[in-house]
Amino acid sequence: MTVKSLAGLHMRPAGELCKKAQKYESNIMFRFRDKEFNAKSLLSILSACVQQEDEIVLVCSGADEQEAAEQIAAFIEAGA
After folding, report:
1. Tens digit of pLDDT for each residue in 31-66?
2. For residues 41 and 29, what is the distance between their CA atoms, to the nearest angstrom?
């Protein structure tokens, strides 16, 4: 998916993403530049240095993975 936020995944959108991800039991990761980052960790998200228009791959696994994937993807694509 393409990150639409003007700031990319920096402090405010990263914090919001982290809060949303923590609501789910599933493991929620994203891949960017051949590395995986934990969407439930603010430091992990910030360390990815994702900018506006960068492409990331969302990976969810667990009991509520379908709902988590849909909600997190919608949040990112909406330009969080």
Report:
1. 999 999 999 999 999 999 999 999 999 999 999 999
2. 10
Please tell me which residue in 10, 16, 32, 64 is annotated as part of the active site.
10
What's the rounded Cα separation, in Å, for the pair 14 and 21?
10
Residue 15 in this model has a pLDDT that exceeds 70: yes
Q: Is 10 a catalytic residue?
A: yes
Our CA angle for 32, 25, 80, nearest 5°, is 50
Helix (H) or strand (E) holding 1: none
Give the pTM.
Answer: 0.90
d(CA 51, CA 61): 25
Ordered by where they begin, the domains of the chain are 11-77 (3.30.1340.10)
